[in-house]
């Protein structure tokens, strides 16, 4: 510890503590306008003789006299040799002389995107950065690529590209209207639709009384970082084009919700691996993590649920999903991270798809076999009935023959 910090200096006026004498002196001069003895600095000859303006430092007084009063009197001014220009500063005179010392003629810089003209390239670049980069960013934000052809729409509203899909590609973009009593009922219906159609909708716009949900595969992938490092090879659910499917809902004053639903998806198939986990599923996994169940056991438990019910997004759970849930819920294991099993999950998913297709084929084949067996049974029943009739007729004939023979024997006797 230094002596300055152990015994700090105090200002004699406001009792503020300082570590060094120099900082204490500068504080008294700048804040209290006094010297170290307590005398005012303005009374120590730092006032202008002409206009009685007071200054703290003498150098400021000299600058004031040189600039203000020399311009009024016309004395001590720097003058140009070639014209009547005069100034009190050397920097202004040098800038003025640079106009006469140009060896090359002045080249005007024209903006290629508008009619603006500038005398320097620096001013032109500042103009482009201020005006035209904002326009380009706005156009990039509005740009919508058709998923079926190279057509691009830069309109603010979606009606232009929707008309393009209806007129040129002959698609029917019909809306369905629904009404709900509350927002909870609307969200319940939205979750049911995502399960039925194997799709997901992101909340794009949220205003006071309106909400607009867009298909999660709509648009272009945008990295979140500052582009300081090169991105790794990673997949994205975006199709780099426009998908018209969406939900637009309006909230009434009473709390009711009126929704407009566009069910048609264009440019992609609804696959289960591109759907997010629901909040209920994430909370379920977070509870398992909080109970310190191992990750492998969670994955096995999730895989076994497929045999009891249909394939869902939870069945495609990966270790990366578990890490994300740990991060979001601020949970942690005391175990090292294992290598991700995304490749294994994809192969397992394809295997399940193949098994489902095989089961469908077997069901269709069993249906056909049932029909053929039913036909065979009906034919066999017909043959059995015909055989019974023939046997009955033969039995009747035999009885008649036996009766005739008995009668003949009796007559001979």
From TrEMBL:
Which of UniProt's keywords are assigned here? Metal-binding, Zinc, Zinc-finger
Q: Which PROSITE patterns match?
A: ZINC_FINGER_C2H2_1, ZINC_FINGER_C2H2_2
Query: Residue ranges of region Disordered?
Result: 359-385
**Would I find Metal-binding among this entry's keywords?**
yes
GO molecular function per UniProt: zinc ion binding
Q: Which residues cross the membrane?
A: none
Compositionally biased intervals (Basic and acidic residues): 368-385
Query: What is this protein's record name?
Result: C2H2-type domain-containing protein
Q: Which organism is it from?
A: Homalodisca liturata
